Each structure stands twice: as C-alpha cells, then as structure tokens.
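Backbone-to-sequence.
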C-alpha cells in the first residue's frame, strides 16, 4: 500500500515549482534573480509590489554566485589611509636611525678619549715626524757657520725661527733591512744607498732619510740624491715614466721591486711628500730643474 504524501511535502513541492516558474520568467526578462521585479512598461508610475524572494532559493543563489571566502578578510582601506601609514613608518625608521647614529657617535667619542695610551702600546713603531723645513737634495753646500745638515740659503726667512725647535739628528746605524743599493734600469741608475740625507751623506750616493721605512716594509721610504753634483746620480730622474721599475736592495741582498705610480714638481718647503704612508712606497727626491734647482722633483713608486 503506497504511503500518502504529507502536507509539508506538498507545500515544499509547490514552493519549488513556483520558484522554478519565477526563475524562468526572470531569465526571459534578463533580470538577476536577486533584483526587484521590474514594473510593467504600461504602468511606469505605479509598479506592482515585488514578491519577497524565497529564503531557500536566496541562500542557494548566494552560495553559487558569491566570491571565494578565505579564513580572514582584510578591511578595505583608502589610498590616503595607507599613504599615512607608510609615512608614519618612514618617520619612525628615521628616528630610530638617528638614535642609533647618536649612540654610535657617543661610543666613538668615549673610545677616542681613552685611546691615546692604548694606541701607543698597540703601534709596533711610532709614526716618525718630519724634522725638516725643506726637502733634502739641495745643491748648495752649507757654510762653516751652519750645521752640516742645514743650508740656510734654501730655508725661507719666515721659517728660520723654527730651527731652534727642530730635534737634533740621531746617528743612524744601518741594519740588515736597511737599503743598501738602488737600481733604476730605465735611466741607467745603479748606486749605493747610504744612511742620512744631509750634505755629507749625499756626497757618497743616494741617501736614506732617517726614520722612514725600510725596503718592503709598510710606510714611506724616502731616498734623496743630487742631480748636478757628486756623480749626478738622479740626473735623469725626470725621464722616468709611469710603470718604470725601481729596484731597492737591502743590506742582506734581498731585492724589492717598486713601480713608478706618479711624479710631481714641488717647492722645497713642501715636506709633506715625506709623510708616512700605510702602504709600502718609495719616494725619490732631487733638485729641479737641472742646474737651476729652485724646486724639487718627487717620484713615488709602489711595491709590487
């Protein structure tokens, strides 16, 4: 015996049928199912009341047409909102950077205040001063009333009062690492290197200025020689070109190759060319021009 349908089932079937009929009519009219019904063309001023959508159908349509839902959704913000947030982040980062810079500056200042004593102990050899008012290599011999290492004619009058504060030259004792010979193939130089750059020392060859570096050591090795007297050892020094070789031999016979990096003409009072350097270099000094000797020719070579 067949079971009779219940009243609830009949009502639900009727509602589904009505919804199907409405959906077909809306599709023919080109309207979205969730839109309100359009008024008839013949009665634009008094549209009929819209039928309330079926809750079950509305839920199904919303489920089918809705965009994918994520587990969270960011709130929509305007462009000015994100621009203000970006500017705020930049300002905060700039403030933090300024604070870090001030803190590092304070640390550096504290280190510098207590650094002198430690720096002296950490430095293997103290940086030599330049106890000269003019560059070595002068061609005029000192008079009998002057010191053997000085020539007052080449010292400007405004610098002569400083002679009293210059330290007394310390006698040089050559060691196994002291320069003993210089060879420059490009200009045919092969001469001994003697300690000191005073007038007496330069009579015997190329002089090694006291306190400057030895061959191969970090620092500035200063060598001076005459260009028009006592063998004219540096007569052709101006002919050197960038890239030419300068060979320096120490007392133990070891050879060190330097390559000319640059050359310049300076005044005799520009003693800064003898300043210490961090890299191993050799500085060759002689008078310039030939037989005029109002300036100095300086050639610098780098250890290679």
């Amino acid at each position: 015996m067949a079971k009779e349908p219940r009243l609830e089932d009949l009502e639900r079937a009727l509602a589904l049928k009505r919804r199907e009929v409405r959906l077909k009519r809306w599709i023919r009219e080109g309207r979205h199912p969730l839109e309100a019904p359009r008024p008839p063309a013949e009665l634009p001023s008094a549209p009929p009341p819209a039928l309330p959508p079926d809750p079950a159908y509305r839920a199904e349509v919303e489920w089918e047409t809705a965009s994918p839902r994520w587990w969270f959704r960011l709130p929509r913000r305007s462009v000015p909102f994100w621009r203000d947030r970006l500017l705020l982040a930049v300002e905060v980062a700039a403030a933090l950077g300024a604070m870090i810079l001030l803190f590092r500056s304070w640390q550096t200042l504290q280190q510098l205040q207590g650094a002198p004593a430690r720096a002296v102990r950490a430095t293997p050899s103290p940086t030599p001063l330049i106890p000269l008012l003019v560059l070595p290599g002068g061609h005029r011999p000192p008079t009998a009333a002057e010191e053997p290492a000085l020539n007052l004619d080449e010292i400007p009058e405004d610098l002569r009062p400083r002679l009293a504060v210059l330290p007394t030259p310390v006698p040089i004792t050559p060691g196994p690492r002291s320069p003993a010979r210089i060879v420059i193939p490009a200009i045919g130089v092969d001469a001994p290197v003697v300690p000191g750059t005073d007038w007496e020392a330069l009579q015997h060859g190329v002089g090694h200025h006291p306190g400057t570096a030895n061959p191969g050591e970090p620092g500035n090795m200063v060598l001076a020689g005459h260009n028009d007297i006592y063998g004219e050892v540096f007569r052709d020094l101006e002919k050197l070109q960038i890239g030419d070789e300068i060979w320096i031999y120490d007392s133990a016979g070891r050879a060190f190759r330097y390559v000319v990096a640059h050359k310049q003409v300076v005044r005799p009072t520009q003693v800064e060319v003898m300043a210490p350097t961090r890299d191993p270099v050799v500085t060759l000094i002689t008078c310039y021009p030939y037989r005029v000797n109002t300036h100095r020719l300086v050639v610098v070579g780098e250890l290679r």
